[in-house]
Amino acid sequence: MTELTVTAKSSSNNLLRRDVRFLGNILGEVLVHQGGNELLDIVEKIRETSKSLRSVFLPELFADFKRIVSTLDPDNRHQVIRAFAIYFQLVNIAEQNHRIRRKRDYERSAGESVQPGSIESAVRDLKERNFTYEEVQEILESLSLELVMTAHPTEAMRRAILDIHKRISEDVMLLDNPTLTFREREQLREKLLNEVITLWQTDELRDRKPTVLDEVRNGMYYFHETLFHILPEVYQELERCLSKYYPGSDWHVPTYLRFGSWIGGDRDGNPSVTADVTWKTLEMQRKLAIREYQHILTGLMKNLSFSATIVNVSDELKQSICTDRENVTLKKMEIWHNEKEPYRIKLAYMIAKMAHVLDSEMTGKERYQSPEEFIEDLQIIDRSLRHHYADYVADTYIKKLIRQAELFGFHTATLDIRQHSQEHENAMAEILAKMNVVSNYSELEEEDKIELLNKLLNDPRPLTTPYQEYSDSTEECLEVFRTVYRAQKEFGVNCVSSYLISMAEGASDIMEVMVFAKEVGLFSKDNDGKVVATLQAVPLFETIEDLHAAPAIMRRLFNLPIYREGLRAMNDLQEIMLGYSDSNKDGGAVTANWELQVAMKDITAVGNEYGIKLKYFHGRGGSLGRGGMPLNRSIMAQPANTIAGGIKITEQGEVISSRYSLKGIAYRSLDQATSALIRASINARTPQENTQEKEWEEISANISAVSQKKYQDLIFRDPDFLSFFKESTPLPEVGELNIGSRPSKRKNSDRFEDLRAIPWVFAWTQSRYLLPAWYAAGTGLQSFYQGNEDNLKTLQDMYVNYPFFTSMIDTLQMAMAKADLIIAKEYSLMTKNDVARERIFGLIKEEFKLTKEMVLKITGQQEILDNQPVLQESIRLRNPYVDPLSYLQVQLLNELRDLREKGEDDPDLLREVLLTINGIAAGLRNTG
User: Fold this and answer.
1) At what angle do helices 693-715 and 789-801 cross, to 10 degrees?
2) Which residue stretches of 152-227 are H helix?
3) Nearest in space to 138 (alpha carbons), one of 688, 684, 689
4) Strands 145-150, 647-652: parallel, antiparallel or unpaired by DSSP?
5) Where are the alpha helices (H) located in 435-506, listed in sequence order?
6) Distance CA 397, CA 258 (A)
7) What's the chain's average pLDDT?
8) Which residues are known to be catalytic?
9) Rounded distance, CA 657 to CA 661, Å?
10) Which of 131, 220, 862, 910 gives a 20 to 30 Å CA spacing to 700?
11) Which pLDDT tens digit goes with each residue over 748-779?
12) Quick check: 222 and 149 in contact, CB under 8 A?
């Protein structure tokens, strides 16, 4: 189990090879220890045969491979599955550590070389392009990136497993320490052997679905472990680079990068997310922030031991201590008794005031009423330290804490609320009927709804009454808005500021939310006509049809004076969310990406017409079939004229753990994101005139139209397709993997429209088709090419010079590199209808071949991913290790489904299926 490395000549990559070999050898020892030499021999035999098949596919060898896999007895089969799955976990750890190592290699060069894609590379670029100090300041003030954690069920790994991974990662990094003695290395090896044994003997599978509050705790883990400490360091690095390339200025970068969350606020299709759960979520988030500040302040008491007998602290600090003594009562053990150490005295009061934030009985000046009060105290300490020339101490400790308070406040992360538009319409219809306003609201024409809702928004009178009883669903809908109002009063207005409306299909869907906001005091109009709004209704345009309608919907809203006044209260900024998952499921990868591009362009034009800045919220998933890509690439993929109002992006499932579980990886990811944000802003300010862009847009539109028809002919219009999909993928079994609190379907139905995009993509990824990420692309591209060399030259020119097309082709390459139709065919054999199977699989195989041919013609490459050799090699070397898990999964699915058809079941068999799902997810580095 030691073959998987990324081939490279550098000594740095040799270290990656060392780590993989080292961990592979340890796993081999564990296999022998736990299952004897027989287990290791079986695993090695399967691995070697799989590797040989990847080198040269021989039918007789393939038959032998399948025989070995199919004749494993249940005990050995279970162990083999776990061996391959855990191997991938260890390799992923080694590769993540290697990313950190590469960054450290650049830093060790002491500035002689600058790492590509880093903050320093972007700031250096600003300087080399002669941007002035004033222009750089303008760019900084315009930057805005919010990364929003979601609880979408794509993290297949348990928290306990991730904790073991973290410990292994930290220990493996110690191998780079050249001062380790022989004995210390042996001890380190023993420790890692213990960790891998612990990993082997820890259950990978959850015994129950997580609750929503479990998911909240999981999300908070990343703030506690990494983000609370890493995010300020990203700001510090940006300020360091600005001072280096633009010396002579005291840079304080405005808040441009922050985190938000949906966990505990996203109730679309998840009845477990109630108003009470949302309130508890906000309490948990506040508790985390307060505990972090208490811990940091306690640490500061050890460091700020300055004596008044040696230094002169500021009068301002002395006065603040006097004020605290008057207002705050300390317990005996909390008092700092050395009167000559004023900073420690002050910090004792600050720690008490911070603790009192969590005590609802404490009021007035005994507690901090807001983060701003806390920051004010920190600034008093900062100024006093600088007063007696302890500025290095102020920079090291206080400046970072001030930044943390600015970023995380007392709420840690802004929580978004999300609900399906139909829920609002149902509640509105019931309320209006019971109040005798209109008996048939849901049946009204769209314009009639808009007219009625406009009147209600302008009417100061309440719409509901406490003396009227409503259905449970309507009462819950209203309670959510009451909870947001209460939360803004308790935790500050920044704790919740956006209310997202899924499946927004008309202006009335947005206005309904505004009427409910008005009902509880989140939207109001004063007697002088001034509108006060602290919650924004955010439409989520998901399907192709919704994307087409979006510009007209926004224009209709912007034309309403009351809506326009509400936006004015929000600094003339409108947030709009775009769904990558459902649009992809609806129209295919090519069409979804094109329609999203067109929608952004057209909505931006409408916003410019009305003088409204737009913040686009990109609902990207982790997988290629749901718009997933590296964070920096997703920023650079946005049209330059659409980033003025800021960018918001979802961070989902396994993406969260892969990016933010390790401090080094988290830092590098945010470093790259900041660099991309600066470069995107530069591009927006220096647009390149391209006379061919209009022609390229027309070509792209035509390619999209042909691709959409091809895609929908199979997905929506082939009567046998849905059965083929369900039977030739592990879709039913994916639903039994306890990875999220949310159901896999919006409704209890078998309709394709009600299937969520996540299990749709997850199932195709597991079965190695990866169909949502590439299907119909070849037909679309061929429709323009048609064997014409001039047309091919145009496509090649587009690939080099048209960012949209470049991104699309490169994403297709990644999807096709991970897909494997030889293995996918094995999954297709599970389909009962032989005729339908041959026909549908034949269509998929033919389209894959065509797409590959077109991509290679356009890129001029010999093989897929020749332009990314490191990724190409990584995938090539991973495949032989994923293959056995895929073949085992097919065998297990057949056995399990045969049993279930007879009305029987086997929990152990299901468990093995779920283990293969985890293993393949780790091997492909993707779930949904």
Assistant:
1) 100
2) 159-173, 182-200, 212-222
3) 684
4) parallel
5) 446-458, 472-491
6) 21
7) 90
8) 152, 585
9) 5
10) 862
11) 566 777 777 778 888 999 999 999 999 999 99
12) yes
